[in-house]
Amino acid sequence: MTTGPSGVVVLIGPMGAGKSTVGARLAALTGTDLVDTDLEIVRRTGRTIPDIFAADGEAGFRAIEQEVVVDVLGRGEGVVALGGGSVLSAVVRAALRDHHVVYLQVDPSVGFIRAHGGARPLLAAVDRDDARRRYEQILAERAELYRSLASQIVDGADAAESVAAAIDAHRRRAVAHDTTSGHDTTITRDRDRPTSESDADRQGAQHP
Ligand SMILES: Nc1ncnc2c1ncn2[C@@H]1O[C@H](COP(=O)(O)OP(=O)(O)O)[C@@H](O)[C@H]1O
Ligand SMILES: O=C(O)C1=C[C@@H](OP(=O)(O)O)[C@@H](O)[C@H](O)C1
Ligand SMILES: [Mg+2]
After folding, report:
1. Does residue 172 register a pLDDT over 70?
2. Where along this sequence does the record place binding of substrate (predicted)?
3. 16 occurs within a structural domain
């Protein structure tokens, strides 16, 4: 993949949106490397994420996460799949500014089913209904943050191959500065460069 001035494609979105899965597909599709920052945290600390939450609390996890994410983004190339809560850090948000940031958007019904039952401490409630309510609350709290950071928004409910292909197609068009090749229907917003008047209108409508 030709990646342009800033080479990193960063995937954001809630737990279960498919960031890790799509990240792997996109890296394979484009012949680049994936860094999944959750896995990188485990690799660097030698501890699992539930262990870190249990011993250091969420605040302790966020401190480690911020350091790892900023470091990984500084490498300047490849695909980076963030953990869903990375964007809660203002330092991480600032570090995202120069990169192509893709928000994998999912309804809570899709995201929760995918995320529940794994080793995610924030959904570790004993009762499934409690866990679901927690997921919905987290998504409601973060949705606008994800939107505001995104250079591209894709439908995370689509098949992982399709999501990866949509990201690659958008990236190729952006690098080629091709404003005439039409629209990718999964793209709802291009932060930096409207591809048509209607896109520009839509941006204005979303960001008064
Ligand atoms: N596009 C997709 N279609 C169907 N299942 C998916 C898709 N993306 C992810 N999954 C499944 O959902 C679960 C969570 O995916 P994951 O990539 O870990 O999400 P995230 O990193 O955003 O939390 C995994 O079991 C994965 O196989
Ligand atoms: O949303 C969150 O706060 C979290 C998401 C997880 O990653 P995924 O988004 O890859 O599931 C992981 O970083 C941790 O359990 C916290
Ligand atoms: Mg993940």
Report:
1. yes
2. 38, 62, 84, 142
3. yes
> Coil, strand, or helix at residue 178?
coil
Determine if ligand 1 sits within 6 Å of the CB of residue 15: yes
Testing ligand 1's pocket by substitution, the residue of 12, 21, 105, 109 carrying the most ligand atoms inside 8 A of its CB is 21
CATH number of residue 78's parent domain? 3.40.50.300
Domain assignment present for 193? yes
Counting Cα atoms < 13 Å in the Cβ hemisphere of 87 gives 26
Q: How far, in Å, is the centroid of ligand 3 from the Cα of 83?
A: 5
Residue-wise pLDDT tens digits, 108-125: 999 999 999 888 999 997
Count how many domains the chain has.
1
Containing H/E element for 11?
A: strand 9-12
* Closest by Cα among 37, 86, 79, 95 to 163: 79
Q: Does residue 3 sit within a domain? A: no
70: Cβ below 6 Å to ligand 1? no
Which tens digit of pLDDT belongs to each residue from 122-135?
Answer: 999 779 999 999 99
